[in-house]
Amino acid sequence: MLTNILLVSLGGAVGATLRFTITPHIDKLFNSNFPFGIFVINIFGCFFIGLLVSFFENRLMLPESLKIFLIIGFLGSLTTFSTFALDNFNLLNQKDFYFLFLNLFFTNFIGVVMVFVGIKAIKILS
Fold first, then answer.
1. How far is residue 41's CA from residue 43's CA, in Å, rounded to a whole number?
2. What are the domain boundaries of the chain?
3. Which terminus, N or C, of the chain has the lesser number of Cβ atoms within 10 Å?
4. For the whole model, what pTM was predicted?
């Protein structure tokens, strides 16, 4: 159990650090009230979780510790939806209902689609 906690912690530290460093750069590129940084991170994270889940289930018998590190630790921290919720709260407070709706709808819809695409990509490649 302690090993798993350390794996989640280490993966989480890497994922959170990556999100922290990449998100502002993406936001700068778009220079918009829309939270593009966390949107892009969440969408790519959804794709990669689809890839990894499919890879672990269909491709190789890899150690459970690698799944814990990558999926729970790294991706769980990289694609945090608490930031998503805060961004939506801020858009609501700013009464920016247009971007609030766009963020709520597209992050959820495209996220589910990207999980599907990630899973299908591994199935096609195997």
1. 6
2. 2-125
3. N
4. 0.78
CA atoms within 13 A on the CB side of 25: 6
Which candidate, 126, 119, 124, places its Cα nearest to that of 54?
Answer: 119
What Cα–Cα distance (Å) separates residue 36 from each residue in 39, 53, 83, 120?
A: 5, 25, 12, 26
Q: What six digits make up the tokens of 63?
A: 């150690």
Helix or strand or coil: residue 126? coil
Write down the pLDDT at residue 58: 79
Q: Report pLDDT digits (tens) over 18-56.
A: 999 999 999 999 999 999 999 999 999 999 998 888 888
Long-range Cβ contacts of 25-33 (<8 Å, 24+ apart) = 32/99, 33/91, 33/94, 33/96, 33/99
